[in-house]
Amino acid sequence: MARPPKLTTDSKDRKEQRERTENLIEKSKELSDITKTPPKELRGTIAGYAWSRLIPELEKMKFVKAPDKDILVLLCMNIQLYREAFESIKENGIQTKIFKTVVSPTTGEILSKDFQGFKKNTAVDTLTSATTKIESLSNKLGLSPVARASILEKVKSEEPTKKQSVKDLLFGDDEE
């Protein structure tokens, strides 16, 4: 399988890589920029903090725009789920002991607590799910080298015959 092309504007990288990146940025110019302020449902949360940390990096890339807001919201929410699940695992471990309490039917007194085995901490499943979603959503936003390269490859392979903006590609061109 061929190596995906690199996304870069670095003058030290190859000319065709820079040209592909510049082409993507140029096609994205008509779209509104994504807001720097987290949406109100994320404010004051770990997700809101994640938004504030990601926005400067996304702005540097210049091709993540307002239509990508929902993907970024989902990414930030999953980062919060990931962190909360990790804290639960740190506090409670990956599994908990299960005991069966034997109570006297006449007095209600606890006679014994019998060990039954272990139960998995459900935060482990949450952590696994959030990790998978973070990776997927990060790739959609071009936050990994492979994802950035595949975005460029997609732009290259879907190159329109006439000069067309990303806005036209996404929402249709009214001239036709």
UniProtKB/TrEMBL annotation:
<dbReference type="Pfam" id="PF05119">
    <property type="entry name" value="Terminase_4"/>
</dbReference>
<feature type="region of interest" description="Disordered">
    <location>
        <begin position="157"/>
        <end position="176"/>
    </location>
</feature>
<feature type="region of interest" description="Disordered">
    <location>
        <begin position="1"/>
        <end position="37"/>
    </location>
</feature>
<feature type="compositionally biased region" description="Basic and acidic residues">
    <location>
        <begin position="157"/>
        <end position="166"/>
    </location>
</feature>
<protein>
    <recommendedName>
        <fullName>Phage terminase small subunit P27 family</fullName>
    </recommendedName>
</protein>
<feature type="compositionally biased region" description="Basic and acidic residues">
    <location>
        <begin position="9"/>
        <end position="37"/>
    </location>
</feature>
<dbReference type="InterPro" id="IPR006448">
    <property type="entry name" value="Phage_term_ssu_P27"/>
</dbReference>
